[in-house]
Amino acid sequence: MPAPIRLRELIRTIRTARTQAEEREMIQKECAAIRSSFREEDNTYRCRNVAKLLYMHMLGYPAHFGQLECLKLIASQKFTDKRIGYLGAMLLLDERQDVHLLMTNCIKNDLNHSTQYVQGLALCTLGCMGSSEMCRDLAGEVEKLLKTSNSYLRKKAALCAVHVIRKVPELMEMFLPATKNLLSEKNHGVLHTSVVLLTEMCERSPDMLAHFRKLVPQLVRILKNLIMSGYSPEHDVSGISDPFLQVRILRLLRILGKGDDDSSEAMNDILAQVATNTETSKNVGNAILYETVLTIMDIKSESGLRVLAINILGRFLLNNDKNIRYVALTSLLKTVQTDHNAVQRHRSTIVDCLKDLDVSIKRRAMELSFALVNGNNIRGMMKELLYFLDSCDPEFKADCASGVFLAAEKYAPSKRWHIDTIMRVLTTAGSYVRDDSVPNLIQLITNSVEMHAYTVQRLYKALLDDISQQPLVQVASWCIGEYGDLLVSGQCEEEEPIQVTEDEVLDVLEGLLVSNLSTPVTRGYALTAIMKLSTRFTSVNRIKKVVSIYGSSIDVELQQRAVEYNALFKKYDHMRPALLERMPIMEKTASNGPTEIVQTNGEAEPSVVEAKHPPPVTQPTNQANDLLDLLGGNDVVPVIQTTVPTKPASAGGELLDLLGDLSLSGGPAPAPATSVPSSQPAFLLDGLTSPPLFNDIAAAGIPPMTAYNKNGLKIDFTFERANPNPNIAVITIHASNSTEADMTDFVFQAAVPKTFQLQLLSPSSNVVPALNQGTVTQVIRVLNPQKQQLRMRIKLTYTHKGSAVQDLAEVNNFPPQSWQ
């Protein structure tokens, strides 16, 4: 058989291929020849064939059939064969293949070989692809080589020990004695690998970290020698002595000094020296300075040193290299919370980075700019960020608009500035703002009573200029509907009022209804605004015509609104002023579980709760916290306490009857249901035929039960069903007292799992009369949409004979008819 071609000739041949197919054909032909040679057990050219196979593997072609040949080369006595064999093992084998275990004995023999280069090959291979089994078997040999005086072997053994520790962390203590003298070595290669080994051990074991903290002075001394030493051609890189070793030492010092006062104090001086003496004109120096900054920020360093570190990052921002600027911005973003004032000094440089062409730098600069905003610089920073919002790419607009909203809400110097800023964002990036920006701005405007005339005038002007930004149009429509009378009357004091007639305002709103730019939600806002103006303007007939036209709209939502508004003009015209009266001031409330009534754009979402009023004054202020203590877990729904609704003699009472099952948000007065349309609004006339709250309950033949009977207090439950919704069970509690003294300050609380919703109405009294001379009643409404077995935890609080009594109980024996 002719001798196979050399590796050099194969490379030259493959490079002459003009197409991928031609190259693939050459590779397949050579692989076939190599396979034939392997089958014939050709020992002469095995090394050459494996070398060619490794080249083909590097090009991405399959070479797994050469794995066993690598093992044969490793077993050879020739160094050239071993070198290619070990290289092949590192490239073609890994711990997922059982074949690699066949190497264990060969590596063990080579670790004890008389030639240091063979030992080095074995250490490299074990440190590269040794499995946990191999590491356990060969850790002793590695530890022995770590103690040798040969620096060539010690540096390789240290790196191999790092791999062993990563694979088998429990073998860490085996290498502890060998680490004692590693840092006293003069050879930089050994020093470097020793620092890597110590770093690995400290990161993996708190005990090792505490043990090696005593090495801080020695590490400081090594780092100082590197800085102060003169030119050494062996270690010099761009005029800096061994920057790789310096970076590794700084990284180890960061780990050792974190959370330790003594170690941090010992390294403060050397860190200051490195920060001030390192040359910044070359990338090498910048790498060392960056590691120095990270170390200063992580340890318990002095305040002056931290300022020095932030100033270094500030200089990085002026560097022409984009990578260095990005690294500086990222590092400043991490430190801005702890060293806010020091970072503030570089605010102008950071803002300049917003103009960078690199998108990643712009994003980091934007995030850092928002982190720097405070009450003192809010006006200047918002000016820069709004300018950035005008000119930035679409991918930034959503995050930038969101950041402006949050910053303005937190630091706004005045309500007018706040409103102007939000309107500027909606004008320039309205299509990119979050969904909650519309209700949030509406709430801000509603609560700024003195700004109503100014705001509606500004928004009306914005509508005349541009109707493409839908969130802006929705807010403007809402404001015109609420405060259209202020717009027409020209009562604005903050700026020169404009002269607007009722017909001009209605023309703008009608234009929104027919515009192709308007979304269905925006049309809903516009129609509701026109309807609200029927109580503020005199052009009622025109408004009736507009509303009646949309009674046959193909948009079901718009049609529903129009039909309901038409009904208001006819059958319920006497109630229209009460329904469409101006919105009261809205208060933000934290979420309180599924049973809370959430105000969205002025409309209340339907819920099992009928009406929400302020709790009675006798209710304890810490009731919610007590209830959470009662529940003892997160699988329950908190309770909403309400007072029993009474029917006023005014139109407001008729409004409650009209709305039937609709939830009304609590406040000084019932919230008009038509104030602001939302994406899924409650229908205004839902429940026109529904009777009042307690007239819709019919007896369901459910047997009563005793839920509690202790210390003379007895709690009985009676059950009824709600007609409109069979999923709602109405439970009436009857509390009686058989003792000789009244029970005063009586409070009954209840909670149910999250799959239920519960409303607890106010009790008939807070005194349970003695000797069963009367009962206290209280109504509970429970929504059980999944028809699950009802479970309830109750908490009873009362005062009896001058002593406060509190008791807990769990009720699980509800009759099946009450929940099925």
Automatic annotation (TrEMBL):
Q: Look up and give the membrane topology term.
A: Peripheral membrane protein
Q: What domain of life does the native source organism fall in?
A: Eukaryota
**Residue intervals of the GAE domain:** 700-815
- Alphabetically list the UniProt keywords: Coated pit, Cytoplasm, Cytoplasmic vesicle, Golgi apparatus, Membrane, Protein transport, Transport
Does the keyword Hydrolase feature in the UniProt annotation?
A: no
- The answer to whether UniProt assigns keyword Disulfide bond to this entry is no
GO CC terms for this protein? AP-1 adaptor complex; clathrin-coated pit; perinuclear region of cytoplasm
Q: Name one GO biological process term.
A: vesicle-mediated transport
Q: Which PROSITE patterns match?
A: GAE
> Where does it live in the cell?
Cytoplasm, Perinuclear region; Cytoplasmic vesicle, Clathrin-coated vesicle membrane; Golgi apparatus; Membrane, Coated pit
Q: What does this protein do?
A: Subunit of clathrin-associated adaptor protein complex 1 that plays a role in protein sorting in the late-Golgi/trans-Golgi network (TGN) and/or endosomes. The AP complexes mediate both the recruitment of clathrin to membranes and the recognition of sorting signals within the cytosolic tails of transmembrane cargo molecules.
The record's family statement is: Belongs to the adaptor complexes large subunit family.
Descriptive protein name: AP-1 complex subunit gamma
* Organism encoding this protein: Haplochromis burtoni (Burton's mouthbrooder)
Taxonomy, top ranks, is: Eukaryota, Metazoa, Chordata, Craniata, Vertebrata
